Amino acid sequence: MAWNWSHTQEAYDNARDNLETLSLETLHIIWAEIKSYPNDDKWNWERFYNDNLDLAKKLSYNCLLDDIWGYMDDFRTCDNGGFNAWCCPYGCHTVPFDLIKDDIK
């Protein structure tokens, strides 16, 4: 089960900052998941995902961040309790609304 965002602007700013801590490889995966969703054709989903993953690898880091954040801001979904913002449609990639400390990175 998922919740809708209802946080402070500071929490949204933290989530955006935390998104920037993710690796380029993780951003590629998230972007491909977003672009592949929804795809009800389960037989072709993997091919569709892999094509989007190849496209993601051609985009700049900043482009990926902007696209993913745009999706997150439109989708506005978080886990139960509202601790982590979903980065992808499936909820398997999240970032916390609390700011990640620099020494944790």
Outline:
With 105 residues, the chain is mostly helical. It has helices at 9-19, 24-35, 45-56, 61-75, and strands at residues 2-4, 77-79, 84-86, 94-96.
Please indicate the percent range of residues in DSSP E strands (runs of 2 or more).
5-15%
> What level of helicity do the residues show?
40-55%
Largest sheet: 2 strands, antiparallel
Number of strands: 4
Q: What oligomeric assembly is this protein in? A: single chain
Overall body shape: globular
Could you give the order of strands across the largest sheet? 1-2
Secondary-structure element series:
EHHHHEEE
Integer tally of domains: 1
Structural class estimated from helices and strands:
mainly alpha
Q: What count of helical segments does DSSP give?
A: 4
Provide a descriptive summary of the structure in words.
The strands form two sheets. A two-stranded antiparallel sheet has the order 1-2. The protein is built from four helices and four strands; from the N terminus they run βααααβββ. The model has no long low-confidence stretch (mean pLDDT 90). Helix 2 crosses helix 3 and helix 2 packs across helix 4. A hairpin with a 7-residue loop joins strand 3 (84-86) and strand 4 (94-96). 48% of the residues lie in helices and 11% in strands. The protein has one domain (22-98). It is mainly α and 105 residues long.
